[in-house]
Amino acid sequence: MNDVMKYMMDLVAIKQKEQRFQMKKILSIVLLFCSSFLSAQTYRIGDLYTASDGSQGIVYYVFPGGTGGWAVALVDAAYCTWGNTNDVTGMPNQNSTYVQNLLADTAGYANTQIIRNFQNNSTAYAAGKVDFANGWVLPSPAQLSMLYGQLPFITNALVDAGGTALATNYDYWCSAEYSASNAWRVYFGTGVFNNTSKNTYSRVRAVRSFTMETESDNVELSYSWSTDETTPEITVNPFHTTRYTVTASTPSGCADTAGQTVIVLNADTVEISKVACTHYEWNEETYTTSGRFSQTFVSAFGCDSVVTLDLTISDQLDVSVVSPVDTLCAGDELQLQAVVANPDAILNIPPIAVGDILCDDGSIVKPSAWPVEGKIARGIVFFVDRTGEHGWAVHLHNQATGVIWGSQIDIPEITNYAYGRWAIEDYDGYSNTQYIRNRGTASTFPAAWAVDFDNGWYLPTIGQLAQMIANLVIIDASLAIVGGAQFPSDGDFWLWSSSEPGVSYAWSINHAGNLRGDIRKNVTDGSNIVRSACDF
Fold it and tell me: Model pTM?
């Protein structure tokens, strides 16, 4: 057997063992369509990231599209006040009672820039303590909340890289105002948002965004933007249509200039992701190279609307058919083998990301591609582990509302966590649910019995729910796409977990990310919800 054929047979054997795909054995040629593949991610949560200036951080979030993410600095930047009690011009006050609005704020770079400009770049305050010139910023509310939720997965990585763990008995500032006198921060013992006087002392831990590495990342380049900024990436928030240009230069003087027009009108903006073999036809134009391409159309409102194509061009596969012989007698069997001579042309499976749609056949579909004929949505991805292939998904609907957790009986197999910071490290919801169900029936433990356990659904732990709430904005958007039940945004609710603080109580969490370990297992005020999760 030649090496190519052995490679292909080994590949098929491995694929047949994967939990996410059930492949049927067939004796016909399998055609692999390039449109089902995208580029791979470079980083995973917990990886060490090194910026162009040599500063380092730990990756704690990767963007859904796989094009970059957020990294947290190895050590705290300061213990200081947020600023004086003046309302920062150009930045809206986040004074809504619903934390979903805070979780929608991901603009740490823009926020930090506005604050620093308003404070005359004072190094006495939180925004002035970060290395802004090299891309490090005071995190936005969403960036800080996500950082808290990832503590179980990044703490050891921070220490191993020579840094320090985040202080779980302190508050950390974020780059959002509540009012002229108060700003938002997160208590890293529970993950709860609270607003307090800007004159209060709290800790500062910088974060930064990053993009995936390319071969040119090792080249020392300088950048000059039309905004006078000199970092490789900038964040803009124009109020009118603006063209931004950047000139990149090498030390030897070679340079190139590129621009992007950002249209700001009452318009539609659409992004399309496509993968094609050798070329792609779009709106009477032919594209033969990978990249992001934009075209401007007129919306229904008469405003300019931008449609952006994120295109990956793959080499044409070179497929041949081999067989032991090419002649046989009538009625004899012959096995045909499809062999790909250039397997490198096959790109990796699209990176699974928060907000993706888990289907009942185990496949994952991007929200932008929904609906897909023959696919039935099962859940929404709310966490992906370091493999990039497995994680957790939340059910499309509630399983129970206004239900008690159960009898005030300690489940001996489940560890009791007295404090929220410890409890968020509990993330084996399947085992917890099994232990609870083994101790009683639907009448004694209704929350754990409300889930479809036989089909893989379980009552998530408080650590899993903390991840879910941190991604609530993305999850709700995907739930709307597939017709699922979005989480309430106009009232309070508490999600039961399968985690215990002791005999009489169970851990729960609300839409604001507040953890409670003081709700009795046999009591509900009608706001307690069961929303199951599953592994994939």
Answer: 0.56
